[in-house]
Amino acid sequence: MPKRPMRLGLYVNLYADKAERPRLADAVEQVILAEQAGFDWVVLGERHLHRPGYHEAITSLAYLAAHTERIGLATAGLIAPVYQPVWLAETLAHIDVLSGGRLTAGFVLGYRPEEFTLYGAQPRERVSRFEECLELVTRLWTEEEVTHHGRWTSLDEAFLSPRPVQSPRPRIWNGGRVSAALERTARMCDGWTTSFNELDSELPGKIAEYLSYPRGAASLGSEVIVCREGYAAPTSQQARSALEAPLRGLYDAYGDWKRTSADAARYAQPWEDIEARSVIGSVDQCVQRLGAYGEMGADGVVLRIQPPGMPQTDALSAIEAFGSEVLPRLSG
């Protein structure tokens, strides 16, 4: 069976500052353009305890749903261990209802100790909290009633009304790079989202490992979604000029946020190393890079085009280039 055309997602910048246009105006403008350009998803992440400001992801997703008609609405990813499962299942189900069935719910374990503390959880609890949360979200989305007495949550004859529009439920993604995360994703979810800094040399092995694990009984498949920095311009030098300085600023911040993570050093690498694991450059280069990920086994690529500090005009230019010049060549 021939592989379906590569799908693209736009990872939207939710960082805020005092000079920002009000009410997510930049994000709305980008997402409307991405929908017109043929992107498959708008993708949001979440962050807490960020003093310059960061828009809350779930309410932002609902806001973007109200301004769009067709584009998929995805998260990559919500920190599942810090959420009360019934609240999370009900809120996400309602976004699927309000959007007419466009939700993909992506989760992560989380890595910042201060974010766990903020929500009354501990990092050492995160795996058991994650698994119980996803089990309950899946069951509440698909079962008439749920009774559950677990380590963190007890329910008696709980149910959601309305349940999600999608049947049997919205798809679930999960991020993570170690073997335990890949196995957990295969068992409990429907797609694996890579890290933005996963090396290209590592991807074929990680994809093969993920696909080798047994699917859980409730799984809807095994999508592979590669997350990458992205910028398309007439020349590679123009792409670098637009992206490098704001991306460096973001990576400096990540180096501090990920001080407890094994991949913190990857955010201090030279531009050439960043470029080698990204979709950055001329249209021809971006087509080639996306094609290469398809050959590796990716079903979709999520592009982070606008780091904090990039002008809106530059972000719109790259979205338009991917839609008008890159995507037609991929589908062709």
UniProtKB/TrEMBL annotation:
This enzyme's EC code(s): 1.-.-.-
Principal EC category: oxidoreductase
Ranges for domain Luciferase-like: 19-299
Flavoprotein listed as a keyword: yes
Translocase as UniProt keyword: no
Record SUPFAM superfamilies: Bacterial luciferase-like
Molecular function via GO: oxidoreductase activity
Keywords assigned by UniProt, alphabetized: Flavoprotein, FMN, Monooxygenase, Oxidoreductase
Cross-referenced Gene3D superfamilies: Luciferase-like domain
Stored InterPro entries: Luciferase-like_dom, Luciferase-like_sf, SsuD_RutA_monooxygenase
UniProt name for this protein: LLM class flavin-dependent oxidoreductase
